[in-house]
Write the structure tokens for this entry.
Amino acid sequence: MTKETLVPMLGIVTDVRVDTPDVKTFRVNSVEGGKCFEHMPGQCAMLSIPGVGEAMFSITSSPTNQEFMEFSIKKCGCLTGWLHQMDEGQMITVRGPYGNAFPVEEDLKGQDLLFIAGGIGLAPLRSVINYVRAKRENYGKVRIVYGARSKDDLVDYPEIVNEWCREAGIDVFLTIDQPQEGWEGHVGFVPSYVTELGFDPQGRVLVCGPPVMIRFTTQALIEMGFEKTQIYTTMELRMKCGVGKCGRCNIGDQYVCKDGPVFRFDKLGELPAEY
């Protein structure tokens, strides 16, 4: 971590996209233009509104995008409520990147990849997916299982159906929790859908979503024959200060801010109580 990581820099909101009733994606540029800083898939940034507060968010855009950074943010509190009121042209402070990244240039390289996401959990995985798409020759088959409460709650739905679903070598499986008028796809929870799809226990798996989804999905994967050494997740929701000083992000003897947020399951030990 460098001094620059700790110093907030000004960013300009250059686009606001409404993804779902409670999720917006904010495009942020530096005041000079371009990205605020470089990052790798899975890393986070601290966003701040002076006088309101600050919080850690996954960087949703891929590092291969040199024009801007994106953050998909769910409205769930005071700061996110303020963020959801922001318009194009408004200023925000950004600092980072924080945490480690998914090992896209190490353990994931050359592997078939299975991405499993629920709800806003697609946000950190979107960065990895688009990184893999930009460097397609370095990876095997890509399969994406994504679910939400309803079709209206599927984040980045236009990108999924107009880009991911149409790309060779990528298979996308969508599901929603309950039947919905006009929805002709699968209906059911993500963990049971993963079991139903019956993937061969090959390659690497990246899982992100609500804690209960992660727990039951991981159990399903292990029952299917996957090893814990094949499964990665991110615990960015537990990140607080970003530098491991406040002590509020620990999982056993590990600090999410310093040792994560990306963990391989065999290195994680016991899941936190909320999982």
Helices lie at 3-6, 78-83, 122-134, 157-162, 190-197, 211-223, 256-259, 265-268. The radius of gyration is 18 Å. The mean pLDDT is 93.
